[in-house]
Amino acid sequence: MKQVALISNGDFRNAVGESCWPKQEETLSETEQAFTALGVKTYRAHPFNKEKKHGFITTQAECCGIFAGLKPTEPVLIVLSSWVWASHVASSLKLHKGPILLLGNFDGTWPGLVSLLNHSASFERMDIEHSKVWTSSFNNDDRFMQELQAWVDKGRIEHPTDHITSIEELHLSKKAEAFGKQIADDILKQKRILGQMDPGCMGMLNAVMSPDKLAGIGMPLELLNQSDLLAEMESVQDETAKSHLQWLKDHDVIFHWGSNPHTELVEEQVIEQMKMYEAAGRIYQRYGLSAIGIPYQYGLVRCTSASDLPEGMLNNSDRPDIVNPDNSEAINKGLPIVHFNEGDVGSAVPQVLMHDILVKKGMPPESTLHDVRWGDWWEDEFVWVFEVSGGAPPAHWVGWEQTHVYRQPPMYFPKGGGTCSGVSKPGTITWARFYERSGRIGMDMGTGRVVELPSDEVTRRQKATTSEWPMANVHIPGYDRDRLMSTHRSNHITICYGNMVQELAAAAKYLGIPVNIVGDARKEFS
Questions:
Q1: Which of 49, 346, 478, 488 has the fewest CB atoms within 10 Å, counting from its CB?
Q2: Which domain does 144 fall in, by range?
Q3: What is the SS3 assignment for 187?
Q4: pLDDT value, residue 526
């Protein structure tokens, strides 16, 4: 390998590209220096755009034009330092014959590691052969430089997979087998319909699953359109929205109000969010859903306030009543209306299973997805920062009185609206990820714990990521930085409190989903 083409994939929005370009320029420069140290030339395959004030690819069409000018066998490196859309580059890479490498900076700022996980999972979804590598220090990272050398020499990087064990190699308890089979039998008979709005949010091709595969496990899709959500919001009375907001105020939610709607949280934005909360619940009831997913970005971001506060409310058992207009009864009273953030079906499947299992076991039924946002060592353990834009349930951090509602960052959310934010409480968790890979479905899962950290360390982590968003500081034994980055098949991870991994594995098994137990959780299957 004598020369490598560097690709800067990007977001659709120029404002985001302009803000993120300084970090990308820094990452590109460090990448170029690393290849120079290996004696390999690099060149940037597309120029900086002076009008846009950044050098990111912003559309699939733009990428197709770039690849039309590349040699079909040329080595290509996608340099990732911020959240960008995998769909921009996937179609061109599907037909590319040369070696493909994804490089992510292990940095919490925008961040590249989330994009790396999403691109890799999206490429696996599309059966695009590729390698991946990550680093926080480039030339000073011996592992990174060795893996980069391997790619230069062989055109591929192989990562260890000894932390993954098929459920077929493990022993499920008889009690868990019976429990899981009962859950699966009910799902296969009664079905659990997943209401997915506008699939493909933000270029996440890994969030799009084949309808036939989902129908085959008793979780068929109901494909919905977000324009219907807007139409339903218009039918919600102001009085209803104001009563939901008053409910939150009465429950001591901490609103960080301001007066400038362009940069601060104002009540009109939250009233819109309360209408979205009500509308989503009505649609959930109308279609007989077991879960609903609002992607919000990109589409609603130009139309209405953020969906994140409504999402957190829906996912919580303790919440304002949404009344069915047909019979005046509260919808799912005392239980969550399961919401899968960003319309990601790879989270919907485990969230529905977690909900059913937890309800049957009499345990708190709240679940959520998070981005695998970043992580760092604390004492002698690697502790992940799991973070989402606001859809986590307040039950995960004790309750509404510890819930902060901040205005969403204007760069991503010009219409404003509030988060549903808190720091998750310490405790044991079960985590999972459902995926489709090269035409086959599967689910990885394990256990871990949310770690209680000192307030100054929590603050450091918030400042290193997006401080307005809810976070969980999680240690997963046997699934540290490099193990997760090498094999986790999504930028998302789904969590709930409690250890129910055996029941979850059994239910998935009897639904016909191949299951892997990841990390030290396999020790529980004796």
A1: 49
A2: 3-154
A3: helix
A4: 75
